[in-house]
Structure formats: structure tokens, C-alpha cells
Amino acid sequence: QVQLVESGGGLVQTGGSLRLSCAASGSVFSITAVSWYRQGPGKQRELVARITSDGGILYTDSVKGRFTISRNSAKNTVYLQMNRLKPEDTATYYCNAISVISAYSRDSWGQGTQVTVSS
User: Fold this and answer.
1) CA 41, 45, 47: angle at the middle one, nearest 5?
2) Is the pLDDT of residue 72 over 90?
């Protein structure tokens, strides 16, 4: 089983920056991908960025060129650097990990961290 703890959210003005962290523990060896999702007020949860165990990275179109996902394997931590933030980036951000053990895939979620961008 994988446990995830997010941190780094907060209140920032338009154009500002924040860095979110997702620290993993437990069966980290089984993780195949870590993603950041977000859910804004009255909106569905959406994928923001993903990094796979072999280094593959993808972003949703609305954050390309502004957000960067990265990892520190030694610390079992994935980061989301968010620059040039916009009010529409306001959401609760969740870390997700997909782990595979014995061909069984499992989703793990963190508790979420709030990001608020003021105009």
C-alpha cells in the first residue's frame, strides 16, 4: 500500500508561484506513475500533470509552459512547480499514485492541498 501526503498549497496573487510536494511512503517500489489532479469549485476533478516511473511526463493544455512536474527519487517525493498562476488555477490539488503489485493495479490518493489565486 502507498500513502501520500501533499503540502505547499496556499494563497497567492495572480502571476505568483507555488511549489506543491507529494511525499510517498509504504510500497513506493510499486509506483508506476504519480499524478497531480485538481478540483475547482463546482468543477470535476481533472488531471493536471503526470510523471511515470520511466520518466514520461504529460500536462493538461491549460498548464503547459507554466507548471513543471518533477521528482526526487531519493526522497520519494514528486513536486509540482506552478508559475504564472491564474485565478482559474484555484482548486484543491490532489496527488495520485498508481502502483502495481503482482499485476494488480491500485490507486492511492493524498488528502489534498488548497491553492487559491487571488485576482
Assistant:
1) 130
2) yes
